[in-house]
Amino acid sequence: MSRMDAQFEGWGRLLARRTGRRSFLARVGALLAGSAALPLLPVARASADSSRVPAPSESIPGPEGDPTRCEYWRHCAIDGFLCACCGGSATTCPPGTEMAPVTWIGTCRNPADGRDYIISYNDCCGKGFCGRCGCNRNEGDRPEYHWVRSNDINWCAGAKSQAYHCSVAIVVGQATEAQPER
Amino acid sequence: MRRLVLGTMLLSSLAAATASGLEAEKIGNVAILPPIGDHWVWVPDRLLEHSLLYDGDSGEVLAAVDSNASITPKVPLVARGRGEIYSVDIDYARGRRGARTDFVTIYDATTLAVVGEVPLSHPTSESNSSVAHIALLDGERFLVVFSQFPVTLASVVDLEERRVVEEVPIAGCAGLYAVARLRFATLCGDGTLLVAELDDRGALLRTARSERFFDVVEDPVSMVGARIGSRWLFVSFAGYVHELDFSGESPRAEPPWSLVDDGERRDEWRPGGLQQLALHRARQRLYVVMHQGGAGSHKDPGPEIWEFDLARRTRVARLQVPNLAADFVGPLLGLESGGLGHRLLRWITPNPGAHTIAVTQDDRPLLFVRNAELGVVAVLDPRTGEHLRNLEEAGVTGPTLGVP
Protein backbone atom coordinates (compact mmCIF):
# COMPACT_ATOMS: atom_id res chain seq x y z
CA MET A 1 0.00 0.00 0.00
CA SER A 2 2.74 2.40 0.93
CA ARG A 3 4.48 1.56 -2.34
CA MET A 4 1.32 2.39 -4.27
CA ASP A 5 0.99 5.66 -2.39
CA ALA A 6 4.55 6.51 -3.22
CA GLN A 7 3.95 5.72 -6.89
CA PHE A 8 0.88 7.93 -7.04
CA GLU A 9 2.74 10.70 -5.31
CA GLY A 10 5.55 10.37 -7.83
CA TRP A 11 3.12 10.52 -10.74
CA GLY A 12 1.48 13.57 -9.26
CA ARG A 13 4.78 15.37 -8.87
CA LEU A 14 5.89 14.47 -12.35
CA LEU A 15 2.56 15.45 -13.85
CA ALA A 16 2.62 18.78 -12.07
CA ARG A 17 6.12 19.48 -13.30
CA ARG A 18 5.38 18.46 -16.85
CA THR A 19 2.12 20.33 -17.02
CA GLY A 20 3.67 23.49 -15.69
CA ARG A 21 6.58 23.33 -18.04
CA ARG A 22 4.38 22.57 -21.00
CA SER A 23 2.14 25.44 -20.20
CA PHE A 24 4.84 27.99 -20.28
CA LEU A 25 6.70 26.44 -23.15
CA ALA A 26 3.66 26.03 -25.23
CA ARG A 27 1.57 29.02 -24.72
CA VAL A 28 4.10 30.78 -26.65
CA GLY A 29 2.10 33.85 -27.05
CA ALA A 30 1.91 34.46 -30.53
CA LEU A 31 2.31 37.79 -31.90
CA LEU A 32 4.47 39.12 -34.51
CA ALA A 33 4.85 41.70 -36.81
CA GLY A 34 4.02 44.98 -37.89
CA SER A 35 5.49 48.23 -38.64
CA ALA A 36 5.53 50.84 -41.25
CA ALA A 37 1.95 51.86 -40.90
CA LEU A 38 2.44 52.68 -37.25
CA PRO A 39 1.76 56.34 -37.15
CA LEU A 40 -1.74 55.64 -38.43
CA LEU A 41 -2.66 53.21 -35.71
CA PRO A 42 -5.11 54.11 -32.98
CA VAL A 43 -2.68 52.62 -30.49
CA ALA A 44 0.09 54.89 -31.63
CA ARG A 45 -2.21 57.89 -31.20
CA ALA A 46 -3.32 56.68 -27.79
CA SER A 47 0.29 56.29 -26.72
CA ALA A 48 1.03 59.84 -27.71
CA ASP A 49 -1.61 61.00 -25.23
CA SER A 50 -0.79 58.53 -22.52
CA SER A 51 0.65 61.10 -20.13
CA ARG A 52 -2.84 62.54 -19.73
CA VAL A 53 -4.41 59.23 -18.77
CA PRO A 54 -5.31 59.01 -15.09
CA ALA A 55 -3.42 56.17 -13.47
CA PRO A 56 -5.73 53.32 -12.51
CA SER A 57 -5.78 52.07 -8.98
CA GLU A 58 -3.64 48.95 -8.64
CA SER A 59 -4.28 48.14 -4.99
CA ILE A 60 -6.16 44.96 -5.79
CA PRO A 61 -5.71 41.91 -3.58
CA GLY A 62 -5.28 38.48 -5.17
CA PRO A 63 -4.43 37.36 -8.72
CA GLU A 64 -6.25 40.29 -10.31
CA GLY A 65 -3.61 42.58 -8.80
CA ASP A 66 -0.59 40.40 -9.55
CA PRO A 67 1.12 41.17 -12.89
CA THR A 68 2.81 37.75 -12.85
CA ARG A 69 -0.58 36.01 -13.10
CA CYS A 70 -2.71 35.37 -16.17
CA GLU A 71 -5.72 36.52 -14.15
CA TYR A 72 -4.27 40.01 -13.67
CA TRP A 73 -6.96 42.42 -14.86
CA ARG A 74 -4.83 43.99 -17.60
CA HIS A 75 -4.26 40.56 -19.18
CA CYS A 76 -7.80 40.05 -20.53
CA ALA A 77 -6.54 39.78 -24.12
CA ILE A 78 -2.89 38.76 -23.68
CA ASP A 79 -1.28 35.96 -25.62
CA GLY A 80 2.31 35.30 -24.70
CA PHE A 81 4.82 35.28 -21.87
CA LEU A 82 4.42 37.90 -19.13
CA CYS A 83 7.40 40.27 -19.01
CA ALA A 84 6.88 40.61 -15.25
CA CYS A 85 8.16 37.02 -15.02
CA CYS A 86 11.08 37.64 -17.37
CA GLY A 87 13.05 40.46 -15.80
CA GLY A 88 10.69 43.28 -16.77
CA SER A 89 7.30 44.32 -15.46
CA ALA A 90 3.74 44.78 -16.68
CA THR A 91 4.91 47.98 -18.39
CA THR A 92 8.67 47.43 -18.92
CA CYS A 93 10.58 45.11 -21.24
CA PRO A 94 13.36 42.93 -19.79
CA PRO A 95 16.98 44.08 -20.21
CA GLY A 96 18.44 43.70 -23.66
CA THR A 97 15.14 43.52 -25.49
CA GLU A 98 13.40 46.08 -27.63
CA MET A 99 9.76 47.10 -27.20
CA ALA A 100 7.91 46.87 -30.50
CA PRO A 101 6.17 50.17 -31.18
CA VAL A 102 3.10 48.73 -32.88
CA THR A 103 0.76 46.39 -31.13
CA TRP A 104 -2.68 45.02 -30.60
CA ILE A 105 -5.11 46.41 -28.08
CA GLY A 106 -7.69 45.09 -25.69
CA THR A 107 -10.28 46.64 -23.41
CA CYS A 108 -10.12 45.36 -19.83
CA ARG A 109 -12.13 46.23 -16.74
CA ASN A 110 -10.15 47.27 -13.66
CA PRO A 111 -11.87 45.72 -10.66
CA ALA A 112 -10.40 48.37 -8.36
CA ASP A 113 -12.36 51.25 -9.88
CA GLY A 114 -14.86 49.42 -12.12
CA ARG A 115 -13.66 51.32 -15.19
CA ASP A 116 -12.69 49.94 -18.59
CA TYR A 117 -9.23 50.74 -19.91
CA ILE A 118 -7.63 50.36 -23.32
CA ILE A 119 -4.58 48.15 -22.94
CA SER A 120 -1.66 48.15 -25.37
CA TYR A 121 0.02 44.71 -25.45
CA ASN A 122 3.46 45.60 -26.75
CA ASP A 123 5.85 42.77 -27.47
CA CYS A 124 9.45 42.76 -26.25
CA CYS A 125 11.68 41.48 -29.01
CA GLY A 126 15.18 40.48 -30.03
CA LYS A 127 15.55 37.36 -27.87
CA GLY A 128 13.95 33.94 -28.09
CA PHE A 129 10.95 32.86 -26.02
CA CYS A 130 11.20 33.87 -22.35
CA GLY A 131 9.36 30.67 -21.53
CA ARG A 132 7.84 31.80 -18.22
CA CYS A 133 4.27 32.69 -17.24
CA GLY A 134 2.70 31.86 -20.60
CA CYS A 135 -0.87 33.15 -20.82
CA ASN A 136 -3.54 33.05 -23.49
CA ARG A 137 -6.66 35.09 -22.82
CA ASN A 138 -8.73 36.16 -25.75
CA GLU A 139 -11.42 38.58 -24.63
CA GLY A 140 -12.01 40.81 -27.62
CA ASP A 141 -9.35 39.07 -29.70
CA ARG A 142 -10.16 38.98 -33.41
CA PRO A 143 -8.56 37.15 -36.37
CA GLU A 144 -5.61 38.52 -38.28
CA TYR A 145 -7.69 40.38 -40.88
CA HIS A 146 -8.84 42.65 -38.02
CA TRP A 147 -5.25 43.02 -37.07
CA VAL A 148 -5.27 45.86 -34.55
CA ARG A 149 -7.27 43.58 -32.24
CA SER A 150 -5.49 40.35 -33.11
CA ASN A 151 -3.25 38.84 -30.46
CA ASP A 152 -2.23 36.01 -32.81
CA ILE A 153 0.04 38.23 -34.89
CA ASN A 154 3.74 38.41 -34.04
CA TRP A 155 3.89 42.10 -33.26
CA CYS A 156 7.67 42.06 -33.13
CA ALA A 157 7.28 42.82 -36.82
CA GLY A 158 7.79 46.45 -35.93
CA ALA A 159 11.05 45.83 -34.07
CA LYS A 160 14.60 45.34 -35.38
CA SER A 161 14.45 41.59 -34.82
CA GLN A 162 11.18 39.71 -35.01
CA ALA A 163 12.28 37.21 -32.37
CA TYR A 164 9.53 37.24 -29.70
CA HIS A 165 10.47 37.28 -25.99
CA CYS A 166 7.48 38.46 -23.89
CA SER A 167 4.59 40.95 -23.71
CA VAL A 168 3.72 43.93 -21.53
CA ALA A 169 0.26 45.39 -20.83
CA ILE A 170 0.27 49.18 -20.80
CA VAL A 171 -2.72 51.40 -20.00
CA VAL A 172 -3.09 53.91 -22.82
CA GLY A 173 -6.47 55.39 -21.98
CA GLN A 174 -9.87 54.95 -20.47
CA ALA A 175 -12.40 53.24 -22.70
CA THR A 176 -15.72 54.86 -23.34
CA GLU A 177 -17.45 51.50 -23.52
CA ALA A 178 -16.81 47.91 -22.51
CA GLN A 179 -15.39 45.31 -24.86
CA PRO A 180 -18.04 44.20 -27.37
CA GLU A 181 -18.20 40.46 -27.14
CA ARG A 182 -20.07 37.48 -28.41
CA MET B 1 55.84 -3.14 -38.32
CA ARG B 2 53.84 -2.25 -35.24
CA ARG B 3 51.08 -0.82 -37.44
CA LEU B 4 50.99 -4.07 -39.43
CA VAL B 5 50.59 -6.11 -36.25
CA LEU B 6 47.77 -3.89 -35.03
CA GLY B 7 46.08 -4.13 -38.41
CA THR B 8 46.35 -7.90 -38.37
CA MET B 9 44.87 -8.02 -34.88
CA LEU B 10 41.97 -5.77 -35.98
CA LEU B 11 41.25 -7.96 -39.00
CA SER B 12 41.34 -11.02 -36.78
CA SER B 13 38.83 -9.53 -34.39
CA LEU B 14 36.57 -8.50 -37.28
CA ALA B 15 36.74 -12.03 -38.63
CA ALA B 16 35.84 -13.32 -35.18
CA ALA B 17 32.80 -11.04 -35.05
CA THR B 18 31.68 -12.27 -38.45
CA ALA B 19 32.16 -15.86 -37.38
CA SER B 20 29.93 -15.22 -34.38
CA GLY B 21 27.06 -14.21 -36.68
CA LEU B 22 27.19 -10.46 -37.23
CA GLU B 23 28.00 -9.16 -40.69
CA ALA B 24 30.05 -6.02 -40.98
CA GLU B 25 27.76 -3.14 -41.86
CA LYS B 26 28.31 -0.29 -44.25
CA ILE B 27 29.01 3.10 -42.73
CA GLY B 28 27.38 6.11 -44.36
CA ASN B 29 23.88 4.90 -45.20
CA VAL B 30 21.21 7.60 -45.39
CA ALA B 31 17.55 6.67 -45.74
CA ILE B 32 15.22 7.94 -48.42
CA LEU B 33 11.46 8.37 -48.25
CA PRO B 34 9.06 5.94 -49.90
CA PRO B 35 6.33 7.35 -52.16
CA ILE B 36 4.11 9.77 -50.25
CA GLY B 37 1.60 7.83 -48.19
CA ASP B 38 -2.10 8.55 -47.72
CA HIS B 39 -1.72 8.38 -43.94
CA TRP B 40 1.24 10.66 -43.44
CA VAL B 41 1.04 13.75 -41.26
CA TRP B 42 3.31 16.71 -40.48
CA VAL B 43 3.70 17.64 -36.81
CA PRO B 44 5.35 21.11 -36.56
CA ASP B 45 7.05 22.16 -33.33
CA ARG B 46 7.64 25.70 -32.08
CA LEU B 47 10.59 25.03 -29.84
CA LEU B 48 12.37 22.44 -31.94
CA GLU B 49 11.75 24.56 -35.05
CA HIS B 50 11.01 21.70 -37.35
CA SER B 51 8.16 19.56 -38.64
CA LEU B 52 8.27 15.82 -38.02
CA LEU B 53 6.71 13.60 -40.66
CA TYR B 54 4.86 10.61 -39.17
CA ASP B 55 3.30 7.52 -40.69
CA GLY B 56 -0.14 7.43 -39.07
CA ASP B 57 -0.42 3.64 -39.50
CA SER B 58 2.85 2.61 -37.88
CA GLY B 59 3.15 5.64 -35.62
CA GLU B 60 6.79 5.96 -36.69
CA VAL B 61 8.70 9.06 -37.72
CA LEU B 62 9.76 9.06 -41.35
CA ALA B 63 11.75 12.31 -41.50
CA ALA B 64 12.00 15.92 -40.35
CA VAL B 65 12.11 19.24 -42.17
CA ASP B 66 13.76 22.15 -40.35
CA SER B 67 12.15 25.56 -40.37
CA ASN B 68 13.43 28.56 -38.43
CA ALA B 69 10.60 30.73 -37.22
CA SER B 70 10.05 33.39 -34.59
CA ILE B 71 6.78 31.79 -33.46
CA THR B 72 5.62 28.69 -35.29
CA PRO B 73 7.04 26.87 -38.33
CA LYS B 74 4.69 26.87 -41.27
CA VAL B 75 3.46 23.40 -42.23
CA PRO B 76 5.52 22.17 -45.22
CA LEU B 77 3.66 21.84 -48.52
CA VAL B 78 4.03 18.81 -50.74
CA ALA B 79 3.74 18.86 -54.53
CA ARG B 80 3.24 15.22 -55.46
CA GLY B 81 3.40 15.87 -59.18
CA ARG B 82 6.65 17.79 -58.94
CA GLY B 83 8.15 15.44 -56.38
CA GLU B 84 9.05 18.40 -54.17
CA ILE B 85 8.43 19.71 -50.68
CA TYR B 86 8.39 23.44 -49.85
CA SER B 87 9.16 25.14 -46.56
CA VAL B 88 8.83 28.91 -46.12
CA ASP B 89 11.61 29.92 -43.77
CA ILE B 90 13.08 32.90 -41.92
CA ASP B 91 16.70 33.33 -40.94
CA TYR B 92 18.90 35.92 -39.25
CA ALA B 93 22.59 36.49 -39.87
CA ARG B 94 23.42 36.16 -36.14
CA GLY B 95 21.01 33.76 -34.53
CA ARG B 96 18.12 36.02 -33.55
CA ARG B 97 19.65 39.30 -34.74
CA GLY B 98 21.36 40.68 -37.79
CA ALA B 99 20.04 40.84 -41.32
CA ARG B 100 16.82 38.91 -41.82
CA THR B 101 16.19 36.85 -44.91
CA ASP B 102 12.97 35.12 -45.97
CA PHE B 103 12.98 32.35 -48.53
CA VAL B 104 11.29 29.22 -49.83
CA THR B 105 13.41 26.11 -49.38
CA ILE B 106 12.77 23.41 -51.98
CA TYR B 107 13.40 19.78 -51.02
CA ASP B 108 13.41 16.67 -53.15
CA ALA B 109 10.45 14.65 -51.88
CA THR B 110 12.42 11.38 -51.90
CA THR B 111 15.86 12.29 -50.60
CA LEU B 112 14.85 15.45 -48.69
CA ALA B 113 17.96 17.05 -50.16
CA VAL B 114 17.71 20.80 -50.68
CA VAL B 115 17.44 21.25 -54.43
CA GLY B 116 16.60 24.93 -54.62
CA GLU B 117 15.77 28.15 -52.87
CA VAL B 118 13.65 31.15 -53.76
CA PRO B 119 14.45 34.43 -51.96
CA LEU B 120 11.46 36.56 -50.97
CA SER B 121 11.56 40.35 -51.06
CA HIS B 122 9.25 40.99 -48.09
CA PRO B 123 9.17 39.70 -44.51
CA THR B 124 6.81 36.76 -44.39
CA SER B 125 3.99 36.95 -41.88
CA GLU B 126 3.86 34.92 -38.68
CA SER B 127 1.08 34.30 -36.20
CA ASN B 128 0.24 31.99 -33.35
CA SER B 129 -0.56 29.18 -35.79
CA SER B 130 0.45 30.72 -39.15
CA VAL B 131 -2.51 28.80 -40.59
CA ALA B 132 -3.27 29.87 -44.19
CA HIS B 133 -0.11 31.96 -44.50
CA ILE B 134 1.07 29.91 -47.49
CA ALA B 135 -0.86 28.03 -50.17
CA LEU B 136 -0.02 25.79 -53.11
CA LEU B 137 -2.36 26.48 -56.02
CA ASP B 138 -3.93 23.66 -58.04
CA GLY B 139 -1.61 22.29 -60.69
CA GLU B 140 1.40 22.89 -58.42
CA ARG B 141 2.86 25.64 -60.62
CA PHE B 142 2.42 28.53 -58.19
CA LEU B 143 2.99 28.92 -54.46
CA VAL B 144 1.63 32.03 -52.72
CA VAL B 145 3.16 33.46 -49.53
CA PHE B 146 1.49 35.98 -47.20
CA SER B 147 3.29 39.11 -45.96
CA GLN B 148 1.36 41.36 -43.57
CA PHE B 149 3.82 44.05 -42.43
CA PRO B 150 5.04 46.57 -43.40
CA VAL B 151 3.05 46.02 -46.59
CA THR B 152 0.27 43.46 -46.99
CA LEU B 153 0.68 41.36 -50.08
CA ALA B 154 0.86 37.88 -51.53
CA SER B 155 4.12 36.90 -53.21
CA VAL B 156 3.51 34.57 -56.15
CA VAL B 157 6.34 32.05 -56.54
CA ASP B 158 6.67 30.29 -59.89
CA LEU B 159 7.88 26.81 -58.90
CA GLU B 160 8.90 26.03 -62.46
CA GLU B 161 11.19 29.03 -62.75
CA ARG B 162 11.92 29.13 -59.00
CA ARG B 163 11.43 32.87 -58.62
CA VAL B 164 8.87 35.40 -57.48
CA VAL B 165 6.86 36.51 -60.48
CA GLU B 166 4.23 38.75 -58.88
CA GLU B 167 3.35 40.59 -55.69
CA VAL B 168 -0.40 40.98 -55.29
CA PRO B 169 -1.45 43.80 -52.93
CA ILE B 170 -4.14 42.65 -50.50
CA ALA B 171 -4.28 45.58 -48.07
CA GLY B 172 -6.65 45.00 -45.16
CA CYS B 173 -6.84 41.26 -45.74
CA ALA B 174 -5.14 38.19 -44.27
CA GLY B 175 -4.73 34.51 -45.04
CA LEU B 176 -4.34 32.77 -48.40
CA TYR B 177 -6.67 30.07 -49.70
CA ALA B 178 -6.13 28.16 -52.95
CA VAL B 179 -9.20 28.25 -55.14
CA ALA B 180 -8.02 26.94 -58.53
CA ARG B 181 -4.96 26.66 -60.76
CA LEU B 182 -4.63 30.42 -61.14
CA ARG B 183 -6.83 31.77 -58.34
CA PHE B 184 -6.49 32.33 -54.63
CA ALA B 185 -8.61 34.10 -52.02
CA THR B 186 -8.01 36.10 -48.83
CA LEU B 187 -10.25 37.14 -45.91
CA CYS B 188 -10.68 40.87 -45.43
CA GLY B 189 -11.26 43.16 -42.47
CA ASP B 190 -14.51 44.52 -43.88
CA GLY B 191 -16.19 41.12 -43.69
CA THR B 192 -15.66 40.28 -47.36
CA LEU B 193 -13.42 37.91 -49.23
CA LEU B 194 -11.13 38.93 -52.08
CA VAL B 195 -10.17 36.58 -54.89
CA ALA B 196 -7.15 37.22 -57.13
CA GLU B 197 -6.82 35.71 -60.59
CA LEU B 198 -3.44 35.23 -62.28
CA ASP B 199 -2.48 34.66 -65.89
CA ASP B 200 -0.51 31.61 -67.03
CA ARG B 201 2.77 33.27 -66.03
CA GLY B 202 1.57 34.24 -62.57
CA ALA B 203 0.91 37.93 -63.22
CA LEU B 204 -2.20 39.44 -61.65
CA LEU B 205 -5.08 39.61 -64.09
CA ARG B 206 -7.89 40.88 -61.88
CA THR B 207 -9.40 40.78 -58.44
CA ALA B 208 -13.03 40.32 -57.39
CA ARG B 209 -14.67 40.79 -54.04
CA SER B 210 -17.57 39.00 -52.40
CA GLU B 211 -20.46 40.72 -50.71
CA ARG B 212 -19.97 41.36 -47.00
CA PHE B 213 -20.91 38.03 -45.44
CA PHE B 214 -19.80 38.26 -41.79
CA ASP B 215 -19.33 40.82 -39.03
CA VAL B 216 -15.67 41.10 -38.02
CA VAL B 217 -16.50 42.38 -34.52
CA GLU B 218 -19.77 40.68 -33.60
CA ASP B 219 -19.10 37.20 -34.95
CA PRO B 220 -15.92 36.84 -37.02
CA VAL B 221 -14.88 33.70 -38.90
CA SER B 222 -11.62 32.04 -37.83
CA MET B 223 -8.61 31.90 -40.15
CA VAL B 224 -8.97 28.12 -40.48
CA GLY B 225 -10.93 27.18 -43.59
CA ALA B 226 -11.86 23.88 -45.21
CA ARG B 227 -11.99 23.41 -48.96
CA ILE B 228 -14.19 21.12 -51.01
CA GLY B 229 -13.88 21.60 -54.79
CA SER B 230 -14.74 25.18 -55.66
CA ARG B 231 -16.13 25.91 -52.20
CA TRP B 232 -14.46 27.04 -48.98
CA LEU B 233 -16.08 26.75 -45.58
CA PHE B 234 -15.33 29.11 -42.70
CA VAL B 235 -16.79 28.82 -39.21
CA SER B 236 -17.56 31.79 -36.96
CA PHE B 237 -16.75 32.10 -33.26
CA ALA B 238 -20.42 31.48 -32.41
CA GLY B 239 -20.62 28.38 -34.63
CA TYR B 240 -22.12 29.54 -37.93
CA VAL B 241 -20.81 27.95 -41.12
CA HIS B 242 -20.20 30.34 -44.02
CA GLU B 243 -19.82 28.61 -47.38
CA LEU B 244 -18.19 30.52 -50.22
CA ASP B 245 -18.73 29.39 -53.79
CA PHE B 246 -15.91 30.27 -56.19
CA SER B 247 -17.34 28.69 -59.35
CA GLY B 248 -18.34 32.09 -60.74
CA GLU B 249 -16.26 35.17 -61.47
CA SER B 250 -16.93 36.68 -58.03
CA PRO B 251 -17.09 34.66 -54.82
CA ARG B 252 -20.64 34.09 -53.64
CA ALA B 253 -21.58 33.50 -50.00
CA GLU B 254 -24.32 31.02 -49.18
CA PRO B 255 -26.68 31.78 -46.28
CA PRO B 256 -24.90 30.63 -43.10
CA TRP B 257 -26.02 27.55 -41.16
CA SER B 258 -25.46 26.69 -37.54
CA LEU B 259 -23.39 23.87 -36.05
CA VAL B 260 -25.48 23.97 -32.88
CA ASP B 261 -29.22 23.91 -32.21
CA ASP B 262 -30.96 26.27 -29.81
CA GLY B 263 -30.48 24.01 -26.79
CA GLU B 264 -26.78 23.51 -27.50
CA ARG B 265 -26.38 27.25 -27.97
CA ARG B 266 -27.97 27.86 -24.58
CA ASP B 267 -25.50 25.35 -23.16
CA GLU B 268 -22.69 27.40 -24.76
CA TRP B 269 -21.42 24.75 -27.13
CA ARG B 270 -19.20 26.45 -29.71
CA PRO B 271 -16.18 25.70 -31.91
CA GLY B 272 -12.74 26.43 -30.52
CA GLY B 273 -9.08 25.67 -30.86
CA LEU B 274 -6.22 26.60 -33.14
CA GLN B 275 -6.89 24.40 -36.18
CA GLN B 276 -10.39 23.33 -35.31
CA LEU B 277 -11.73 22.29 -38.73
CA ALA B 278 -11.07 19.29 -40.96
CA LEU B 279 -12.98 18.06 -43.97
CA HIS B 280 -13.15 14.69 -45.75
CA ARG B 281 -14.02 15.60 -49.30
CA ALA B 282 -15.20 12.27 -50.71
CA ARG B 283 -17.37 11.49 -47.70
CA GLN B 284 -18.49 15.14 -47.41
CA ARG B 285 -17.85 15.11 -43.70
CA LEU B 286 -16.89 18.19 -41.70
CA TYR B 287 -15.14 17.74 -38.35
CA VAL B 288 -15.11 20.54 -35.77
CA VAL B 289 -13.47 20.70 -32.32
CA MET B 290 -16.23 21.79 -29.90
CA HIS B 291 -16.26 23.00 -26.30
CA GLN B 292 -18.56 24.76 -23.87
CA GLY B 293 -17.53 28.34 -23.19
CA GLY B 294 -18.48 31.97 -23.46
CA ALA B 295 -17.13 34.99 -25.26
CA GLY B 296 -13.36 34.94 -25.63
CA SER B 297 -13.14 31.13 -25.52
CA HIS B 298 -12.64 30.74 -29.28
CA LYS B 299 -9.11 29.32 -28.88
CA ASP B 300 -9.93 27.01 -25.99
CA PRO B 301 -9.39 23.29 -26.56
CA GLY B 302 -12.45 21.06 -26.82
CA PRO B 303 -13.37 17.67 -25.33
CA GLU B 304 -15.36 16.62 -28.42
CA ILE B 305 -15.10 16.56 -32.20
CA TRP B 306 -18.44 16.87 -33.94
CA GLU B 307 -18.94 15.27 -37.33
CA PHE B 308 -21.35 16.87 -39.81
CA ASP B 309 -22.83 15.60 -43.06
CA LEU B 310 -22.27 18.54 -45.39
CA ALA B 311 -24.96 17.56 -47.88
CA ARG B 312 -27.63 17.44 -45.17
CA ARG B 313 -25.99 20.01 -42.90
CA THR B 314 -26.68 17.83 -39.91
CA ARG B 315 -24.51 16.39 -37.19
CA VAL B 316 -23.96 12.67 -37.50
CA ALA B 317 -21.57 11.91 -34.62
CA ARG B 318 -19.90 13.30 -31.50
CA LEU B 319 -16.39 11.88 -31.16
CA GLN B 320 -14.62 11.99 -27.80
CA VAL B 321 -11.11 13.43 -27.61
CA PRO B 322 -8.78 10.95 -25.85
CA ASN B 323 -7.00 12.06 -22.70
CA LEU B 324 -3.85 13.39 -24.34
CA ALA B 325 -2.32 14.52 -21.02
CA ALA B 326 -2.38 10.95 -19.70
CA ASP B 327 -1.20 9.61 -23.05
CA PHE B 328 1.70 12.04 -23.02
CA VAL B 329 2.75 11.38 -19.45
CA GLY B 330 2.20 7.61 -19.51
CA PRO B 331 5.20 6.71 -21.68
CA LEU B 332 7.39 9.08 -19.62
CA LEU B 333 6.51 7.02 -16.58
CA GLY B 334 7.22 3.81 -18.39
CA LEU B 335 3.57 2.72 -18.27
CA GLU B 336 2.44 0.18 -20.82
CA SER B 337 -0.11 1.63 -23.22
CA GLY B 338 -3.56 0.37 -22.22
CA GLY B 339 -2.21 -1.30 -19.08
CA LEU B 340 -3.61 -0.87 -15.59
CA GLY B 341 -1.30 2.02 -14.70
CA HIS B 342 -2.11 3.84 -17.91
CA ARG B 343 -5.85 3.36 -17.38
CA LEU B 344 -5.51 4.67 -13.84
CA LEU B 345 -3.61 7.67 -15.10
CA ARG B 346 -6.35 8.40 -17.63
CA TRP B 347 -8.88 8.22 -14.82
CA ILE B 348 -7.11 10.56 -12.41
CA THR B 349 -5.77 13.06 -14.97
CA PRO B 350 -8.14 15.79 -16.20
CA ASN B 351 -8.65 15.57 -19.96
CA PRO B 352 -7.31 18.83 -21.46
CA GLY B 353 -9.09 18.35 -24.82
CA ALA B 354 -7.80 19.18 -28.29
CA HIS B 355 -6.95 22.36 -30.20
CA THR B 356 -6.16 20.86 -33.56
CA ILE B 357 -7.36 18.20 -35.99
CA ALA B 358 -6.53 16.96 -39.50
CA VAL B 359 -8.04 14.14 -41.57
CA THR B 360 -6.63 12.05 -44.42
CA GLN B 361 -8.55 11.92 -47.71
CA ASP B 362 -8.53 8.20 -48.55
CA ASP B 363 -11.47 5.81 -48.14
CA ARG B 364 -10.10 4.44 -44.84
CA PRO B 365 -9.33 7.81 -43.29
CA LEU B 366 -7.44 8.66 -40.13
CA LEU B 367 -8.27 11.64 -37.92
CA PHE B 368 -5.26 13.20 -36.16
CA VAL B 369 -5.94 15.00 -32.88
CA ARG B 370 -3.52 17.33 -31.04
CA ASN B 371 -3.41 19.51 -27.95
CA ALA B 372 -0.99 22.37 -28.69
CA GLU B 373 0.81 21.98 -25.37
CA LEU B 374 1.41 18.22 -25.35
CA GLY B 375 3.97 16.18 -27.26
CA VAL B 376 1.62 13.48 -28.47
CA VAL B 377 -0.89 13.17 -31.33
CA ALA B 378 -3.85 10.78 -31.16
CA VAL B 379 -4.93 8.79 -34.22
CA LEU B 380 -8.67 8.10 -34.45
CA ASP B 381 -10.86 6.24 -36.92
CA PRO B 382 -13.28 9.05 -37.80
CA ARG B 383 -15.90 6.54 -38.94
CA THR B 384 -16.20 4.97 -35.51
CA GLY B 385 -14.40 7.33 -33.14
CA GLU B 386 -12.10 4.49 -32.09
CA HIS B 387 -8.75 5.63 -30.69
CA LEU B 388 -6.37 3.54 -32.78
CA ARG B 389 -2.95 4.65 -31.55
CA ASN B 390 -0.77 7.61 -30.64
CA LEU B 391 2.10 9.34 -32.37
CA GLU B 392 4.47 9.51 -29.43
CA GLU B 393 7.34 11.89 -28.61
CA ALA B 394 5.75 14.34 -31.01
CA GLY B 395 7.91 17.29 -30.03
CA VAL B 396 7.16 19.80 -27.29
CA THR B 397 4.55 22.26 -28.47
CA GLY B 398 2.76 23.31 -31.62
CA PRO B 399 -0.68 24.39 -32.78
CA THR B 400 -0.91 22.77 -36.21
CA LEU B 401 -0.96 19.51 -38.15
CA GLY B 402 -0.78 18.94 -41.89
CA VAL B 403 -1.74 16.03 -44.12
CA PRO B 404 0.50 16.14 -47.24
Short description:
The complex is a heterodimer of chains A (182) and B (404). Chain A has 182 residues and is α+β, with helices and mostly antiparallel strands.
Verbal overview:
The complex is a heterodimer of chains A (182) and B (404). In chain A, strand 3 and strand 4 form a beta hairpin. Chain A starts with a helix and ends in an 8-residue tail after the last strand. A 3-stranded antiparallel sheet of chain A has the order 2-5-7, with no helix packed on it. Chain A is of the alpha+beta class and 182 residues long. Chain A folds into 2 domains: 1-39, no CATH class; 61-182, Methylamine/Aralkylamine dehydrogenase light chain (Electron Transport Ethylamine Dehydrogenase), CATH 2.60.30.10. Chain A has helices at residues 2-26, 42-48; strands at 79-81, 98-99, 104-110, 115-121, 123-125, 134-136, 164-167, 170-174. Helix content of chain A is 18%, strand content 19%. In chain B, the strands form 7 sheets. In chain B, strands 16, 17, 18, 19 and 20 form a 5-stranded antiparallel sheet that branches. In chain B, helix 3 (324-332) crosses helix 4. The longest helix of chain B has 18 residues, at 2-19. At the A-B interface, helix 1 of A face strand 12, strand 13, strand 16 and helix 3 of B.
**CATH-defined architecture of chain B:** 7 Propeller
Percent range of helical residues of chain A: 10-25%
Report how far apart the termini of chain A are: 51 Å
Assembly type: heterodimer
**How many structurally independent domains of chain A?**
2
Q: How many domains, in number, for the residues of chain B?
A: 1
Features:
heterodimer; A: 182 residues; alpha+beta; Electron Transport Ethylamine Dehydrogenase; 3-stranded antiparallel beta sheet; 2 helices; 19% strand; disordered N terminus; B: 404 residues; mainly beta; Methylamine Dehydrogenase, Chain H; 5-stranded antiparallel beta sheet
